[in-house]
Amino acid sequence: MSLRGKKIVLAVTGSIAAYKAAFLTRLLVKQGAEVQVLMTADAEKFISPLTLATLSKKKVISALTDAEQWSDHVSLGLWADLMLVAPATANTLAKFAVGICDNIVTAVYLSAKCPVFFAPAMDLDMWKHPSTQHNIKRLVSFGNRMIPVGHGELASGLVGDGRMAEPEDIVRLLDNHFAEGNQFKGKTALVTAGPTYEPIDPVRFIGNYSSGKMGIALATGLANRGAKVNLVIGPSRISIPDHPNIKVFKVTTAQQMYDKAVQLYPECDVAIMAAAVADYRPKQEAAEKIKKSASDMTLELEKTPDIAAGLGKMKQSHQLNIGFALETNDEEANAKAKLVKKNFDFIVLNSLQDPGAGFNHDTNKITILKKDNTQKNFELKSKTEVAADIIDEIAGMLFPGNGNHN
Ligand code: CTP
Is 0.90 surpassed by the pTM of this model? Predict the structure, then answer.
């Protein structure tokens, strides 16, 4: 019953599935949620605002302005604990994806600070179209959550994917979302992410291909479950969601990442080292651009501090340390050696031999190797889903006996 007292903006757009919005509203209200319904002009052709106003016990808002007043989309976007767009048409999803703002639903979407869930509803071919799929991918990359479509008979008579999820399933999902939102309440996490750059001279550096995606997905997943997250991230081009629970510390070098992590570590309950830290740096950083000379050149390198090993030494009994191992050969043996050497509670192994795993992919395929020698293998998944698996594992260790996945 996590929906009790939650403020939900339910945005209904123009699809035949709009009739399901009545059931959805009734179920949400029954669970104790306060529901503000928004409708597009097309949605009103499928279901009457009077029906939804009666069920939600609130006037439906369908225009940015009416004869008497201007609807304050900004305060609605701030008021809501969650925005649910159901049904979400291909047209509305496309507008969300590019930031078009031409009705109350798109205006509230652009102003919303809360999590946004959308339940697509459309015909089979519209659903499959690369344009729709591209838009959905973009929305998911913004941190919006897609509620998977169902398979079955569609309004066109065709059978396939594209049906809006059933109201009962949507309500269950939202209920889980709010329950999850408190799982890590009161806990603090430290996440290192991205590459580090070690300067050679003012214009060159030693770096690596890490994108920071995995670390950002972990930080977001933990923050969504209520943890306070300190994200220490090296130079990454990926945008970091603006989340009230995430504090971002941008660093460049391994030394800076080490210093920040060591400073933040004592207050944290769990540290995840997802950064691809350079192991070596030039012994001297040239003050001026190194000029090309006739002969070959040699760079003298020295070791950088090992952040994970340093935090492993500082670790207290209430703290959990999680590491990553990206290996190309002898994967398990190498990962196990790192697990012990760096005092990790578990290590997440990804092999570069698995297609779709590792740097710069949106997907990853992991194995979790634990201190007690047990291991779990996972399928190739999106980095958001991989982060959820890792966080479930952490939850199982932090809150044993709470019905987590251990
Ligand atoms: N790590 C770290 N600081 C470093 C090097 C690595 O915190 N200077 C962390 C990584 O974030 C990762 C784990 O240690 O969680 C293993 O990193 P990896 O690069 O695989 O291990 P290395 O110890 O550098 O060993 P090698 O490069 O020889 O495989």
Answer: no
